[in-house]
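S.,

Sequence below, as promised.
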Amino acid sequence: MHHLPANAALISIDVQQAFDDPVWGQRNNPDAERNIAILLDAWRSGPRPLFHIQHRSPRPGSLFHPDRPGYRHKPEGMPLAGEPVLFKSVNSSFIGTDLEARLRAAGIEVLVIMGLTTDHCVSTTTRMAGNFGFETYFVGDATATFERTGPDGRHFTAEDMHDTALASLHGEFATVVTTREVLAALEKGE
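The prediction came back faster than expected:
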């Protein structure tokens, strides 16, 4: 990482219990939540801002509906008292929220993004962050996704989906980094 200013913001996206449901299929990166917890702990030890994003579906049958257990945060990504939680109902954390306004008002120009899932909400938020001109870091090992079937019936493993999402983002919308690299930047006090 080139630098991590004192007001760089960590954005934790959709670390919710809905993603534990077997309906999603096979998943990659079983260490994602552990890395998310490590980054949250490290971030909380300093003055840098932190934002939690929580998906809230208006559809009663959705795993992300507030009345369903899946709506709740996973223990590893649980917000602490006083930490801002923004609620979204679409893929991007910028649409239907005041995230951009909060970042701009605080003079934040650097974002570190993690969460679930790599190729959906985390990628969509990252793409918009890059388009908005934020210097954006995507923590590849603090994200995970699921297997998919394409419109032609071809199967793509969770690892394939994750890797192609990282390849698509890196150098265009963000710089893909590891948890270790973020921790090293925090230790340096950059």
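The helical segments are 32-44, 99-105, 118-131, 158-169, 179-188.

Coffee later?
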